[in-house]
């Protein structure tokens, strides 16, 4: 997960990522980024893409998973363009929305940056994206899922996955139909992401919800919440939030004797949850609009060869987001023309068909369930 880049990427994935970009956007005259006649124009050389998200701090794992995918896409592109390489500019937000505006300004001021993968979290997206929109710097988030982000009229906003308006109902459906829960309890962490998602789950579960609670990020003592859950008779708990709070929460619930099913979402699909919750994590259900690693075997093999582990949460989405931008650079796009390139993009990626609607939302959306079994997060299939 925290590995540094050492190995070259297999040609199979290189062909997958760059082979068809000459027809992207409907222009047959656009040169293919990786083809023999598709050398980038001089204007497209010496450029950068940005990675905006938590690379340090309590939520760093999710950012690192994305960054690994981005770096894999860069390896692919640069191997095909050795005389015109693209560099990566990292903007480490630590997942803190208060740091986002200054980092966005840094990216905007670097005129070599022609596109951003991220911001990775919904709160920092809300803070940074107005600045990116004003500057005309395109962003493709591989992981920020708050639905309202697409409702601001930002011309530069694109999302390479489904939002919580899809994930929330899917989580509620799983709780009702698969778990057969009759007494669900819903908790959120008051964040832009966690509360937004939990509120959708609350709405979809309706009158079946036997209790609600709100905790705070960085909280460690969940005694009051545990009391509310156990006294309610809840047979399932949904938590909208991140792994640093989910791990001690489930440990304290189990220590109090609660036997129900803990259901969480993509913000908890992180190795740190397993490490910090230990045996208490067993049986946890995780929903995520992210595809299982084995959906794209060639990408899985390339990633595992480089990082000695399978792709993790949003690694594939990070790869796809970066590939869209890199294909644009290969076709001679600049910061000023990249928005239209992304808007009209329609190619198969490693996670899905990469295409966006008029609000920048992914046109191909799926939500999967995962389960913690024997100390590992394993796929439990798509939630239809």
From TrEMBL:
Q: What is this protein called?
A: Amino acid/amide ABC transporter substrate-binding protein (HAAT family)
Where is the Leucine-binding protein domain positioned along the sequence? 47-375
Q: Which GO terms describe its biological process?
A: amino acid transport
Q: Which family does it belong to?
A: Belongs to the leucine-binding protein family.
Keywords for the protein's UniProt record, in alphabetical order:
Amino-acid transport, Signal, Transport
Q: Does the keyword Transport apply?
A: yes
Q: Any signal peptide, and if so, which residues? A: 1-22
Q: Does the keyword Iron-sulfur apply?
A: no
Q: Which CDD domains match?
A: PBP1_ABC_LIVBP-like
Q: What broad taxonomic lineage does this protein's source fall under?
A: Bacteria, Bacillati, Actinomycetota, Actinomycetes, Micrococcales
């Amino acid at each position: 997960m925290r590995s540094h880049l050492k190995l070259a990427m297999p040609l199979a994935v290189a062909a997958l990522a760059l082979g068809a970009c000459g027809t992207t956007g409907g222009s047959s005259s656009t040169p293919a980024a990786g083809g023999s006649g598709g050398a980038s124009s001089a204007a497209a050389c010496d450029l950068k893409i940005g990675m905006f998200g938590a690379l340090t701090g309590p939520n760093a794992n999710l950012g690192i998973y994305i960054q690994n995918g981005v770096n894999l896409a860069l390896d692919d592109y640069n191997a095909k363009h050795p005389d015109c390489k693209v560099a990566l500019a990292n903007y480490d937000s630590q997942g803190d929305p208060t740091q986002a505006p200054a980092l966005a300004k840094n990216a905007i001021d670097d005129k070599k940056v022609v596109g951003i993968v991220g911001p990775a979290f919904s709160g920092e997206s809300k803070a940074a994206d107005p600045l990116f929109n004003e500057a005309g710097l395109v962003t493709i988030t591989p992981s920020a899922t708050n639905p309202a982000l697409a409702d601001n009229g930002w011309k530069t906003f694109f999302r390479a996955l489904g939002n919580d308006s899809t994930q929330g109902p899917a989580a509620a459906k799983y709780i009702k139909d698969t778990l057969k829960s009759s007494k669900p309890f819903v908790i959120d962490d008051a964040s832009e992401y966690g509360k937004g998602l939990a509120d959708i789950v609350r709405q979809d579960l309706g009158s079946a919800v036997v209790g609600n609670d709100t905790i705070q990020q960085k909280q460690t003592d969940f005694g009051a919440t545990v009391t509310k859950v156990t006294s309610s008779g809840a047979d399932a708990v949904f938590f909208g939030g991140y792994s640093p709070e989910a791990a001690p929460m489930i440990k304290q619930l189990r220590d109090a004797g609660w036997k129900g099913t803990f259901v969480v979402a993509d913000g908890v699909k992180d190795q740190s949850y397993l490490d910090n919750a230990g045996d208490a994590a067993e049986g946890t259900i995780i929903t995520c609009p992210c595809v299982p690693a084995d959906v794209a075997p060639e990408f899985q093999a390339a990633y595992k060869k480089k990082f000695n582990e399978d792709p993790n949460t949003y690694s594939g989405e990070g790869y796809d987001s970066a590939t869209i931008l890199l294909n644009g650079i290969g076709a001679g796009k600049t910061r000023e023309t990249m928005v239209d390139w992304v808007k009209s993009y329609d190619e198969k990626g490693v996670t899905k068909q990469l295409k966006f609607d008029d609000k920048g939302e992914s046109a191909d959306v799926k939500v999967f369930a995962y389960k913690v079994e024997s100390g590992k997060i394993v796929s439990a299939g798509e939630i239809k």
